[in-house]
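agent> call fold_tool(seq_1)
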Amino acid sequence: MKTIFSSLVALLLGCHLYFCGSFSGLAYAEYSNTGPLKAMCRINPSTRLASDMPRVYGRILFEQSDPKEKLNVIFRLSGFPDDKQPRAMHIHEYGDIRKGCDSTGGHYNPLEIDHPQHPGDFGNFVSNNGKIRHSQLCNATLFGKLSIIGRSVVIHEGKDDLGRGGNVESLLHGNAGRRLACCVIGLSNPKY
């Protein structure tokens, strides 16, 4: 009985690995002939935010035409105080927001390199009249095993020191402070 159970587990695990490994290739094949692959996330304030902290809302859009091209990221955010304070944004490891933005894990760092070289280290942003309207290219991807789909974006309270803080934390996350807002990245309808 134990042998039959072990064989069944091995078979199911093999099927799971086969289909999960094939899925990213399937996504590429599906979208490669019909236009760019698109994703988005809807930013909301962290549920564990103190009452005196700003409430940031908005959308972040992602578009990539091919795995070899850079990912275009478009930020449309509001709710910042008009204080000219630079604020950091990064892609984080998990798309888990059960504990507000605190359960999103650390920076997404699949290559195990120092910050600010992680794919998805967006840098610092200064709001204008409480809003951020910006687009930039980055090294993250929507394709393959390193896809950011299902991960999160976090907006921090403070400025990213860009790895120049002189401590271990600087090379992990840039000492950017508490997490103001976050969202989970999901595939977008290609029509929109």
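agent> call fold_tool(seq_2)
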Amino acid sequence: MTLLHGFPTSSLDWAAVVPQLVGAGFHVTTADFVGFGESDKPYPHTYSILEQADLVEAVWAVDGHDTTAVVAHDYGVSVAQELLARNPDRVTCMTWLNGGIWPDLHHPIPEQKLLAGPAGAEVARQMDEDKFTITINRLIGERPLPGEVLHDMWLGARARDGSRVLPSLLHYMEERRRNAARWTGAVRDYEGPQQFIWGPEDPVSGAHVIPRIREAVPHARLAVLDREPVVGHFPQVESPERVGPLLTGWIRENS
């Protein structure tokens, strides 16, 4: 299976669920998108979801994957939508975690709007670990993330002078709007099994998205993580003990 991470973090977001998946006998492929985590962060550079999809396909070629289950979160949701639009037959089953599948329902927080705006470079220069932690905590549900998890997120975001590329990475919000018909159509038209694992306490892509999921993908399986502690934007980080079994059961059922 292939795990696709979100903004502004890295594949480390999957650290708590990967051992569960591997322990269940699955081969797991994940990587940091270019511009994220420990991957190269060229500057200046036009970061594109299309480029990220190219790189995922290149990883699949190296690993010898003709087909794979895909699990996508946040930024990775858009990459997965592009991959589905290109060749849905390569994806055996799809799992979506909180992300902007439908651009009209994506509610970026103020920090994202500032980074994506004219003052983005200056906002990025002023970003430090305290400000980063405050931003991430705005997205979390009822269970606070441990300090070491937040620190590791920060280290990934700032690695290789990562702060200066943050505004460029956020161009994906406009790219998502430009490709809305193609990418939402890929979700609607995908004939394979789909599962949604959703944290309702997410201000960006939370409870307000659930009615659209039920309307647009009525045959999909939907797991809303609304049992205490209620989950926010990062289900796999906030509640790996719930997300892990949902993934392993789903992949077994559809492999």
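agent> summarizing second result for user.
The first strand starts at residue 2 and ends at 4. The CA atoms of residues 10 and 37 lie 5 Å apart.
agent> awaiting next instruction.
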